[in-house]
Amino acid sequence: MMKIVSGMFGILIMMVGINVAKAQQKIGHVDIQYILTTLPEYKEVESQLKTLETQLLKQSQAKEQEFQEKYQDYLQTSQNMAEVVRQDKEKELTQLQQSFQEFQQNAQTSLQQKSTELLNPLYKKIGDAIEHVALEKGYSHILNVGVAQLDIVIYGDEKFDVSNLVLKNLGIDPSAN
Q: N or C: lower Cβ tally within 10 Å for the chain?
């Protein structure tokens, strides 16, 4: 009887071992930032965003300069102004300052929206390529590394980094970078 129980226990342990081996999952990781900045399209996106940022900055500086000039003029002449003129100038300065602040907020929002509009298709392209590589190579999970303070992986063995496979899937030679 003891031999039967021992035999059954042995078979049970083997079955559990086989199931555990089957349950192991293949996990890889990518550096999405590296892939993104390697895409040829990224350079164009970066250029467009830099151009927009420069335009907005020039406009912001012009508005700030206009305010500063009018403010300096007000400081120099306010003592000799009639009360009604002084109040009108103060009102104008307040409106200019509010307009400047509103422009800065709108400029930041505009830049963020343009960035999202231009980068989303690239992130979709990268996501599709990651999915393709994962399915093709049998990965059950692909984790992102390379984003400061947002890394999902604390440690990743380089042999499981599939970033270059994703680049190859996108038609980019990773050794050229």
A: N
How far apart, in Å, are the Cα atoms of 70 and each of 41, 99, 100, 155?
Answer: 44, 14, 13, 57
Q: What is the pLDDT of residues 74-103, one digit of tens each?
A: 999 988 889 999 999 999 999 999 999 999
User: How many CB atoms within 10 Å of residue 166?
Assistant: 28
Rg (C-alpha) for the chain, rounded Å, is 31
Q: Indicate which CATH number applies to the domain containing 55.
A: 3.30.910.20
Residue-wise pLDDT tens digits, 130-172: 889 988 888 888 888 876 666 566 455 677 788 888 888 899 8
Domain range for 107: 2-176
Q: Phi and psi of 82, rounded to 5°? A: -70, 150
Domains: count for the chain: 1
Element (H, E) at 172: none
Residues in the chain: 177
Report the candidate in 123, 114, 121 with the shortest Cα–Cα distance to residue 35.
Answer: 123
